[in-house]
Amino acid sequence: MQTEAEAMKKIHCVGVLVVDLLSGPIKQYPVPRVATQINTESIRIMPGGGAANTPSALARMGLGVSVFSKVGDDFTGDFVRRELGKLGVETSGICVSPRDSTPFTFVGIHCDGERTFIHTPGANVTFGLSDLDLDRVLAADYLLYQDAWVLAALDGEPGASDGDAEAGGRGSGASGIGDLKHIRAERARGIRRSVENTIA
User: Which end of the chain is more exposed for a tag (fewer CB within 10 A), N or C?
Assistant: First the structure.
């Protein structure tokens, strides 16, 4: 059980929010002009992405956590913010875009348990530093930077060296925990410069 001091720590998470729709079991996908429809037995819709999964787990543990991400001004964006809010996750740092759709993934669950995905990246394509209040993001005891490799406007090109990923300096005193191996040093450096300790 966490101490009162631990419960008061500020945890901020920057990353991807996605609405996942899971359906199955799927024996085979439809084939145009041959078998255009299939039926499944179940369907489930839930928030996904690193900026949903980790904060949800932390909130269930009684820890205070805030999310900084981007969704569309649509019913799926409303859904993911509402569901996170129910768990006690602070969602006011989520940028709502009138031009982009909320990221969405159809998850096909096959009879053997394997999963396949049809993904619409939506707001992930345009999510960048201009969508973040960096002063607010960095005012944290712990900064989690997740899903970095899918945020091209924030990270630059994927596949940066570990040396690039470790190029962030020391600043605000926040401890950074993130998927940083693919982040270019010249992009998103406004976030990484604040990180006291980076665990890639």
Answer: N
Number of domains, the chain: 1
The CATH number given to whatever domain includes residue 67 is 3.40.1190.20
* Residue pLDDT, tens place only, 13-46: 999 999 999 999 999 999 999 999 999 999 999 9
Is 31 part of a structural domain of the chain?
Answer: no
Q: Give the pLDDT confidence of 82-138 residue by residue, as tens digits.
A: 999 999 999 999 999 999 999 999 999 999 999 999 999 999 999 998 999 988 998
Eight-state DSSP code of residue 131: G
Q: What contacts 174, CB < 8 A, 6 or more positions away?
A: 12, 138, 140, 141, 142, 143, 194, 195, 196
- Closest-CA residue to 51 (of 10, 94, 9): 94
Q: What is the pTM of this model?
A: 0.79
Question: 32 lies in a domain?
Answer: no
